[in-house]
Design a protein that fits this description.
Blueprint: H1 7-10, H2 19-45, H3 55-58, H4 64-84, H5 87-92, H6 96-110, H7 115-137, H8 142-166, H9 168-171, H10 193-213, H11 216-231, H12 236-254, H13 260-276, H14 278-281, H15 283-292, H16 301-314, H17 329-332, H18 353-361, H19 363-382, H20 388-407, H21 420-435
């Protein structure tokens, strides 16, 4: 929250007590909250809602609507931060680990097959991250952040539900799409059910946060609407991960043992990693899986992960460059075994965020990402002040982080332009950084 570091910039402005100054302060607070809600809604809905995933979308870097929309959003976010946010708060978001990771992103752009196209795609990613920074720092207090979250959440939900009625062919997967097996599953304003499901789960976590703060009706409505939509996306992974994200965060706090939450998180990450990548790259686990569950392929994903492992081994230090692997000659020219579950030539990502990051940026970048995305946020969580608003907001961010980090073992979204799941992931990481350092009013 932008009021947490400097009263003079945001609250009033401590020394001023006149009615005019109080009204001016209140107006600025309302404008900041409105901007936070508008930016969050725009990032989640995007500038091309109800557009199915496909080649056109994946090449969206050349889409004039996206260019103008995200360019304007980036400018608005920067202006809002400079105009309404205390510089000491904004600077906190620039952690050394994030700067190092963004350095790897720049190197991967320079290493790309088409640096100009990769630069354009990377710029979308950076703009979206700036937008997330604005969303976190513009609200003046917990009530303002709650308002922005609720408004944006209901906009996303409202458009998605209305789409089911007015644009059923776009808001639901259809039998004549590139994935007819998903026919009937809801996706709302999003490109795919595997994006809609996780975003709805995160909005559901927002409902829990609002309810815990005392916004009972608003929180309950947001949670119920999000969970109903999520359950109709057909995303079994999302449905299974939601309890794993909520219970290990809330229950330890209820019994005064919050230190257990990071331990549960680490345990869940290790077990999930072994259960997914472990059965592909570790021979003992591979043999065990072949004996116990010979058909366990995570819908063919294990074939993709084997292929990714082989390709990473060929260029482990630098990777293949940003936007320079999937759907490129690098993949098209590789021999396609007849017994592979998926034809890799038609795949847009590897369905594993960690492997995909390694294949485009290299293993050193993956190590930095693990520190930035997982280890540092756990430290931040344990440093959250024992203040009610900080704890509740920190728990909300921790739910999102737990959910998305586990989901990343089965889906790819790291640095994927303005992917809504990626943005919620960044929101959680940067949010934890802020609530660990400043008291939230």
């Amino acid at each position: 929250m932008s009021s947490i570091a400097n009263q003079r910039r945001t609250d009033g402005y401590g020394a001023y007590t006149g009615a005019h100054d109080a009204a001016s302060t209140a107006l600025k607070a309302r404008i900041a909250t409105f901007l936070a809600a508008a930016i969050l809604a725009a990032l989640l809905v995007s500038f091309r809602p109800f557009t199915p995933q496909g080649p056109t979308l994946e090449a969206g870097g050349g889409d004039i609507v996206n260019q103008l929309g995200f360019g304007s959003l980036g400018a608005l976010s920067l202006f809002a931060i400079l105009a309404f946010v205390d510089k000491r708060v904004a600077v906190v978001l620039l952690s050394p680990w994030w700067l190092l990771l963004l350095g790897f992103l720049v190197l991967s752009v320079l290493n790309a097959a088409d640096p100009s196209s990769a630069m354009r795609a990377a710029l979308f990613t950076v703009i979206a991250i700036i937008g997330i920074g604005a969303i976190l720092t513009l609200p003046r207090d917990a009530d303002s952040f709650s308002t922005a979250l609720a408004v944006a959440g209901f906009i996303v939900l409202g458009l998605s539900y209305v789409g089911l009625v007015l644009f059923p062919n776009e808001a639901m997967h259809s039998a004549d799409s590139i994935e007819p097996q998903h026919a009937g599953f809801w996706r709302g304003v999003f490109t795919h059910k595997n994006v809609a499901g996780p975003v709805m789960a995160c909005l559901g976590f927002g409902g829990i946060y609002l309810w815990r703060r005392g916004w009972a009706w608003t929180g309950a409505a947001l949670f119920i609407l999000a969970m109903v939509f999520m359950s109709n996306t057909g995303s079994k992974t999302t449905l299974g991960l939601v309890p794993l994200a909520v219970l290990p965060v809330i229950l330890p706090g209820l019994i005064g043992m919050r230190f257990l939450t990071p331990l549960f998180f680490i345990f869940a990450m290790v077990v999930t990693g072994l259960a997914t990548l472990g059965i592909v790259f570790l021979d003992p686990l591979k043999q065990l899986a072949a004996t116990i569950a010979p058909d366990l392929t995570y819908t063919g994903r294990t074939s993709l992960w084997e292929f990714l492992g082989e390709m990473i081994a060929k260029q482990p230090w630098t990777g293949y460059g940003y936007e320079s692997f999937w759907d490129t000659p690098t993949v098209y020219n590789v021999d396609q075994p007849f017994d592979r579950a998926w034809d890799i030539r038609g795949i847009v990502h590897g369905h594993n965020s960690y492997l995909d990051l390694a294949v485009i940026m290299g293993l050193p970048a993956l190590v930095v990402a693990v520190i930035t995305f997982l280890i540092v946020p756990m430290r931040d969580f344990m440093r959250i002040p024992r203040l009610r608003e900080n704890i509740l907001l920190g728990d909300f961010f921790m739910m999102i982080l737990s959910f998305t980090a586990l989901n990343a073992f089965l889906e790819s979204f790291f640095f994927r332009r303005a992917d809504p799941v990626w943005l919620m992931f960044v929101l959680a990481i940067l949010g934890l950084r802020l609530v660990a350092r400043f008291p939230v009013r």
